[in-house]
Design brief:
single chain; 253 residues; alpha/beta; TIM Barrel; eight-stranded parallel β-barrel; 8 strands; globular; binds 1,3-dihydroxyacetonephosphate; gluconeogenesis; Triosephosphate_isomerase_AS; Triosephosphate_isomerase; isomerase
């Protein structure tokens, strides 16, 4: 793997200022586990405050409006996110595809806006249980990715892909190591074809879906798993740091 394992906490629609103490604890501890790269994506309301706490960890957003600043009531632009201290944005998450009917076309527009503002991107993909049970998971995920991988020359340097099977998110279920490895290898092949092997090697492929301290070690040691996108277990410093420790120990192994 080209870079350190990347462990990203997606706080989703959770967190008030009381969570800042967790962010501080995550940041201070991350300074002791430099073999992993650690980041959190709090809700918009906390981005700037978490950024001010963060000496070591990266801070990102969970969405962006696809366009310039202007008359769009209630929306937040990429430049506003960057100004608040965010360095990346999570796009294409299955919860946004489901809750807000986000299409690949819209996700593409968001990717363009984020790249224009200098942000890095974590692009999510993943199949539903119905698709997996029909034996079409790989085909579905690759099609989803093909439709939204940025084609801009230097975009790959700022790209991370996250494979998150929808049925594994928040359910306590995880895909088997064999299935994770097969999907990550298929994604790597697509990245190789799209960007060439050298550039593709710079793109980490994260796994997401019920990653916890007690399964992190196994998941993070699967070939082609370059880190984890963590929901529920990122909401407390204790459980999130359990995953960070597992990531830095996997690097030693
Ligand atoms: P959980 O870790 O809660 O399953 O969430 C995963 C996820 O959706 C991260 O983006």
């Amino acid at each position: 793997m080209a870079e350190r394992p990347y462990i990203v906490g997606n706080w989703k629609m959770n967190g008030t200022r009381a969570m800042l103490s967790e962010a501080r604890a995550i940041d201070r501890a991350a300074q002791r586990y430099m073999k992993a790269e650690v980041a959190v994506a709090p809700p918009y309301t906390l981005i700037h405050a978490v950024h001010r706490e963060a000496e070591q960890i990266g801070v990102g957003a969970q969405d962006v409006f696809p366009g310039e600043d202007g008359a769009h009531t209630g929306d937040i632009s990429a430049s506003m996110i960057a100004d608040a201290g965010a360095k990346f944005v999570i796009l294409g998450h299955s919860e946004r595809r489901a809750d807000h009917k986000e299409t690949n076309k819209l996700i593409n527009a968001k990717i363009d806006s984020a790249l224009d503002a200098g942000l890095r991107i974590i692009l999510c993909c993943g199949e539903t249980l119905k698709v997996r049970e029909a034996g079409e998971a790989e085909e579905f995920v690759l099609k989803q990715l093909k439709a939204s991988l940025p084609q801009i020359d230097d975009a790959a340097e700022r790209l991370t892909v996250a494979y998150e099977p929808v049925w594994a998110i928040g359910t306590g279920k995880t895909a088997t190591p064999k299935d994770i490895e097969a999907m990550h290898k298929a994604i790597r092949q697509l990245l190789d074809e799209t960007y060439g092997e050298e550039t593709s090697a710079e793109v980490r492929i994260l796994y997401g879906g019920s990653v916890k301290p007690d399964n992190a070690r196994e998941i993070l040691s699967i070939p082609e798993v370059g880190g984890a996108l963590v929901g529920g277990a990122s909401l407390s410093a204790e459980s999130f740091l359990g995953i960070v420790v597992a990531a830095s120990e996997t690097e030693d192994a």
